[in-house]
C-alpha cells in the first residue's frame, strides 16, 4: 500500500517536472536593453569604487576659485622689491642702530 | 551547443571581447552581455520569483563576471565560466531568501496535484506554480540540484561541474530533494 502510494507520488512529481520543463519562464521583458542597464550599473559601481577620483572632480571648481583668488591677490598686493639699493642698506643700518641702542654701545 | 547547454558558437569572438574588456573597452563587455544574456537569464529564471528578481540575478551575474574578468583563463569557453557564476549567484540568492520562504504553506496547492482523476493534470503554468511553492520549502542546495538536474535536464556531471560538488554529492542531493518534494506535494510536510 505504502509502496503504491510512493510510486503514485513519483509519477505525479515526474509529470509536474515534465510540464514545468515545457514552460520555461518568459525572459523577453528582462532581456530587452539588458546590456544597457548592466553597463550603467558597472559605471555606477566604478564611480563608487574610486572616491578619490570622484572627489577630485567634485573639488575642481573649488581649486579653480582658490587659484583665481590667489592670482588676484598677487596682482593687487605685489611683494615689495625695493629698486633703490641705498634704501635697502638704510633699512639694514636701522636694524644695526637699534641693536647698538639696545645693547648700550 | 556545448556540453553545458550554453551557446558557444563563436568562442574566438568571446576571447577577443574578453581581451578588449580587460583592456578597459566598455563596449566590448556590453558585447559579451549581449551575446550571453539569453543563456544567463534563462538559467536564472528558474530561480527567480518575479521579473524584478530575475533582473537582479542577471545583473549580479554580469557584475561579478566583470569584476573577475581577469581571472578568466580562457581554457574553457566563456559561456561555461559565466554559467558557473550564474549558478553561484542563484545559489547565494536562494540561501539569502531561505528564511522568508520557509513558512510557505502548501495545503491549498497540494489538492490538485494529489488528485489522480485529473485527466491531463495541471497546466504547464500551474505545474510551475505548484513546483515553485514546493521547491521553496527545499534547502537551497537541494533546490539548486533539482533545478539543474530535473528542470534544466542537465547530467550529473554537468551539475557537478557547475556547482563544484562531487558527482556523488549531486546524486545524493538530487535523491533527497526528490523525496522531500514528494513529501511536500503529498501533503505531509514532515513538520
Walk me through the structure.
The complex is a heterodimer of chains A (105) and B (191). With 105 residues, chain A is mostly helical. Helix content of chain A is 82%, strand content 0%. Chain A has one domain. Chain A has five helices and no strands. The radius of gyration of chain A is 42 Å and the shape is rod-shaped. Chain B has two domains: 101 residues, RNA polymerase sigma factor, region 2, helix turn helix motif (Rna Polymerase Sigma Factor, Chain: A, Orthogonal Bundle), CATH 1.10.1740.10; 88 residues, Winged helix-like DNA-binding domain superfamily/Winged helix DNA-binding domain (Arc Repressor Mutant, subunit A), CATH 1.10.10.10. The radius of gyration of chain B is 18 Å and the shape is elongated.
Task: Offer a few descriptive terms.
A: mainly alpha; B: 191 residues; mainly alpha; Rna Polymerase Sigma Factor, Chain: A; Arc Repressor Mutant, subunit A; 2 domains; disordered N terminus
Amino acid at each position: 500500500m505504502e509502496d503504491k502510494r510512493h510510486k503514485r507520488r513519483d509519477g505525479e512529481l515526474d509529470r509536474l517536472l515534465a510540464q514545468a520543463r515545457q514552460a520555461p519562464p518568459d525572459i523577453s521583458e528582462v532581456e530587452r536593453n539588458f546590456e544597457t542597464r548592466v553597463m550603467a550599473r558597472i559605471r555606477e559601481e566604478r564611480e563608487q569604487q574610486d572616491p578619490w577620483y570622484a572627489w577630485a572632480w567634485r573639488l575642481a571648481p573649488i581649486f579653480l576659485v582658490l587659484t583665481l583668488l590667489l592670482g588676484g591677490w598677487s596682482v593687487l598686493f605685489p611683494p615689495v622689491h625695493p629698486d633703490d639699493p641705498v634704501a635697502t642698506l638704510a633699512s639694514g643700518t636701522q636694524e644695526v642702530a637699534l641693536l647698538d641702542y639696545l645693547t648700550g654701545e | 551547443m556545448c556540453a553545458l547547454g550554453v551557446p558557444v558558437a563563436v568562442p574566438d569572438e568571446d576571447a577577443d571581447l574578453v581581451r578588449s574588456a580587460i583592456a578597459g573597452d566598455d563596449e566590448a563587455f556590453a558585447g559579451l552581455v549581449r551575446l550571453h544574456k539569453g543563456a544567463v537569464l534563462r538559467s536564472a529564471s528558474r530561480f527567480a520569483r518575479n521579473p524584478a528578481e530575475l533582473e537582479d540575478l542577471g545583473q549580479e551575474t554580469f557584475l561579478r563576471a566583470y569584476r573577475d574578468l581577469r581571472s578568466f583563463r580562457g581554457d574553457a569557453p566563456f559561456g561555461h565560466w559565466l554559467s558557473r557564476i550564474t549558478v553561484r549567484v542563484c545559489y547565494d540568492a536562494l540561501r539569502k531568501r531561505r528564511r522568508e520562504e520557509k513558512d510557505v504553506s502548501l495545503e491549498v496547492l497540494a489538492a490538485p496535484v494529489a488528485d489522480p482523476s485529473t485527466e491531463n493534470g495541471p497546466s504547464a503554468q500551474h505545474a510551475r506554480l505548484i513546483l515553485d511553492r514546493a521547491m521553496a520549502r527545499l534547502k537551497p542546495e537541494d533546490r539548486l540540484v533539482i533545478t539543474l538536474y530535473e528542470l534544466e535536464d542537465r547530467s550529473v556531471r554537468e551539475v557537478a561541474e557547475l556547482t563544484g560538488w562531487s558527482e556523488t554529492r549531486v546524486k545524493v542531493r538530487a535523491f533527497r530533494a526528490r523525496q522531500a518534494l514528494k513529501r511536500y506535494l503529498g501533503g505531509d510536510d514532515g513538520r
